[in-house]
Design brief:
heterodimer; A: 366 residues; alpha+beta; Rossmann fold; OB fold (Dihydrolipoamide Acetyltransferase, E2P); 2 domains; 20 strands; 34% strand; elongated; B: 294 residues; mainly alpha; MetI-like fold; 14 helices; 72% helix; transmembrane helix (chain B); transmembrane (chain B); MetI-like_sf (chain B); Arabinogalactan oligomer/maltooligosaccharide transport system permease protein (chain B)
Chain lengths: 366, 294
Amino acid sequence: MAEVAYVSASRVFAGNPPVRAVDQLELDVADGEFLVLVGPSGSGKSTALRMLAGLEDVDEGAIKIGGKDVTNVPPKGRDIAMVFQSYALYPHMTVAENMGFALKLRGTPKQEIKDKVAEAAKMLDLTKYLDRKPKALSGGQRQRVAMGRAIVREPSVFLMDEPLSNLDAKLRVETRANIAALQQRLGTTTIYVTHDQVEAMTMGDRVAVLKDGLLQQCASPRELYDRPANAFVAGFIGSPAMNLKTVPLSAEGAQLDGLTVPLTRAALDKASSEGLKEVTFGVRPETLRLASGDEPGMELTVELVEELGADAYVYGSVRIGGQPERFIVRVDGRTPPAFGQNVKVAVRDTSEVHLFHPESGARLEV
Amino acid sequence: MSIETLQAPVVNIPVRHKRSRARSVGLHAALVLASLIAVFPVFWVLVTSFKPDGRAVAPTIRLFDESSLANYGDVLSGQQGDFLAWVANSVEIALLTTVIAVFLSATTGYAVSRFRFPGSRKLLLSFLVVQMFPFAVLIVPLFNVLLTLGLQGTSIGLVLVYCTTSVPFCTYMLKGYFDTIPADIDESGRVDGLSPFGVFWRLVLPLARPGLAVTAFYAFLTAWGEVAFASAFLSASDESKTLAVGLQVFVQQNRVEWGHLAAASILVAIPAVAVFYLVQRFLVAGLAAGAVKG
């Protein structure tokens, strides 16, 4: 068990111009923490993980595991175990041999290997399959073997590179919970890469959001959801995505069509001190509601209704400054408006509105 | 509703479109004919190998005509040439070629498949270009090279010559095969504690067994049946010949000893068949897997 630190670590791929796949990453992961690296494809999250594994060079900066600088240490000297997206099981070895391979290389006595493999197999419900080859296993079982291979080694850090992306939806949810529970039980520092923000939110103690190789924000899931540091994080975290629109500002607040959303004094001051006439206005679908009667609200033409049972999401267009803008509103699943209907939409709680700089995207509130 | 109605009805799904009887007969007749045409020459060599020379090309064709094992006895006893020495030479040269070619092309193929290094593309291209030279053109320059190295007339020299043709081709085949093994497995091995060579030796080579079998088979055959290089680069003395070269003693200026030639040919073919038998279960998978991406 150990803490992990990225110290201004960068990975630059040769090219013209060179691509900074991971750019000056500063990240400290506490001992026993479950940290999720999340971002769209090409954000550098996998590269960051591979740098920690030693499979990718660190061109600038350093990487530390347990306080020790491992920047130039080969993978086998880092005391890490990795679960690959493709599982990367050894096809010519049985499940037991796969799981015990690393121990065998270390020269662990045979009986001890056998005991540890048996113990891990029991934990993962693989005991019946120990003599099988990987090709005779289902996707879920292979995934568990990959986990087992990592567990058996008792490494100081687990690295997981999208380990669930090859599973079907139901199994993924199940395995997600199992991995989180297992990590809690073992208490091993874990770095987990995913592009799925639901996985990130449900599994991580903290979540680091990356985009174009740059760390956008690293915080607890709650914090990330409630106080996104910039418009990118705001739009990336949460499903369906936050409504993010550029709207004009007035002395009272943000001007939406037929609706003025009052803003805090601090936010308005910040905006005016930067000379902003417009602002990127963010509101989550659940912060919007249908307005009743003659309440002020913005006119929304319903274009699509997604009924999920308990809730329904209404997709519709609102004219802002003459341009139609799409908004998503969460409504009660039992009485959704119909397609083509015009409804009025109001903000449920103005304190849950997010404001961002229209150009830099940085959060405006303090 | 009873339980039965819930079960899926049993339906006879035809596995494939059924052929009409006439078509089926026609198809099989054509296949049988093709097989006969392919097998007949070998069969006739076998039949001839039991006949005395005089009967081998007799005007009346018979399957058995004073047939005996005498030809085999003559060939093996070394009446016309030291047949057993030829076998030893051929085995030595073919096996050495196989071992060296497979080892070199496996390591080269792995490097080209996995690592990006300056000139890796050019290396592959040069391997391809080398394949395009006709063998006959190569004999004189190779002769000079062997002379300079002091290897002319030695079996090691001939092994090296065979490697110059086997290694490029085998490298191509194995590169294609290694490309089909996911690089994740290499990385997984490195995280598990293997050195780069350990990854190659303990993970990649075992997984590439079909590819290696095909390559070994190819390298063995090129060396085993080759005549032109062997007659040019080995010393002319009888006991240093290979089988393919040695067979020529049965073809003399004025007459051909058909019976002896056929018997010797059969003896030469046996090891090749044996090697084929050993690797055949890999061959189909190996050729397909290696060739597509090669």
